[in-house]
Write a structure and sequence with these properties.
Largest sheet: 5 strands, mixed
Radius of gyration: 25 Å
Structural class: alpha/beta
């Protein structure tokens, strides 16, 4: 991860919580203590960003919001962090939605889309202006949680004790892999993925329980000590970046009101309302007329004064009669956005 990327991730995190926390600083209000856990170690680059993020939140809230941070899954296992935050053992989950598709498959698009986005900016744009927020609020809400925002890295790199020169080398390759879609894809490629907790990867490689791992970026793999055992890696990573999230329990004391976060750089495509406007028919210029305001009827062109035809707004949800499942809706809007920005053909 470059210095520029690290600054951008830190800024995205600060903006995400700053948008929630900053307006709440009022003299005399009670302090809020949030217990948040990440699966990254304190020595890794993401771990340092996490600790810096916690410091930023305290500063930007004027000391009202304080965070007790836990690294390396110190309280519960990585896959159990979301449940721990949902039930009140913790207040926040800063691991990733990639561990939650077992609850609802729609969580997959908020976690790690293999072969999906090239940069955190692209997925952040999908959340803010591509319809992701409208899906996230009810999805996280049914577990008593709210998605504050994303934080991510460049695409991950596989580590292995043998060379991985191409797809043929994945045949019967036994390695650690996250659950859900990642496992399904690698099985179809002929590999033998083993689902295990993030903190167990080093021991599994050391004891030769696996031959490799899909764990993180080059920086994360190095921080975990994986290259001390597995001397081969893939670079650049061929699947999408690891997209972690910050999800907070609604009962934690942080007021949250779902709001539209559309940027002025991404204007809404909704056409202007024509309600109450009286349709006017074009008036062809009469022969000999010299009025410059007279309308001409041109084939293929909307006549002046005619109402604008309604266009379907991209990423909009279907009406009640054509209601789709959250999973299908999430995948469709994510894929549509990737096509829009040129990631997919």
């Amino acid at each position: 991860m470059t210095a520029t990327t690290r600054r951008r991730v830190a800024q995205l995190g600060a903006v995400a919580v700053g948008a929630v926390a900053a307006p709440m600083v009022v003299r005399g209000q009670a302090k809020i203590l949030l217990r948040i856990q990440t699966h990254h170690s304190a020595e890794s680059v993401p771990g340092k960003i996490f600790l810096r993020f916690c410091k930023y939140v305290e500063e930007m809230s004027g000391g009202r919001v304080q965070i007790e941070s836990f690294t390396s899954s110190a309280v519960v296992k990585s896959v159990e962090t979301f449940d721990a935050a949902s039930t009140g053992i913790l207040d926040g989950d800063m691991t990733g939605a990639v561990y939650q598709p077992g609850k609802d498959a729609a969580f997959q698009v908020f976690g790690d889309m293999l072969g999906g986005y090239h940069s955190p900016d692209q997925m952040q744009a999908w959340l803010d202006v591509g319809g992701g927020r409208e899906i996230a609020d009810p999805l996280y809400g049914k577990f008593g949680m709210v998605l504050v925002g994303f934080w991510g890295d460049p695409p991950e790199s596989l580590v292995s004790i043998k060379p991985l020169r191409g797809l043929a080398d994945l045949e019967d390759w036994k390695f650690r892999c996250p659950p859900a879609m990642q496992t399904d894809i690698f099985v179809k490629l002929g590999a033998k993925p083993v689902v295990m907790d993030f903190g167990e990867v080093f021991t599994a490689l050391q004891t030769k329980a696996v031959e490799g791992a899909d764990a993180g970026t080059l920086a994360v793999n190095k921080a975990l000590g994986l290259y001390e055992i597995a001397t081969y890696t893939t670079y650049p990573g061929f699947h999408s970046m690891p997209q972690d999230h910050l999800a907070i329990n609604k009962a934690s004391g942080i007021p949250y009101r779902p709001t539209s976060r559309r940027s002025s750089r991404w204007p809404s495509r909704k056409p202007p309302s024509t309600a109450g406007r009286k349709p006017t028919s074009p008036t062809p210029r009469s022969r000999g007329s010299s009025s410059p305001k007279a309308s001409r009827s041109t084939p293929g062109r909307r006549p002046t004064g005619a109402p604008i035809a309604s266009r379907r707004r991209p990423f909009s949800r279907a009406g009640r009669s054509g209601r789709r499942s959250p999973t299908k809706q999430a995948f469709e809007s994510s894929i549509a956005f990737m096509k829009r920005i040129g990631v997919l053909a």
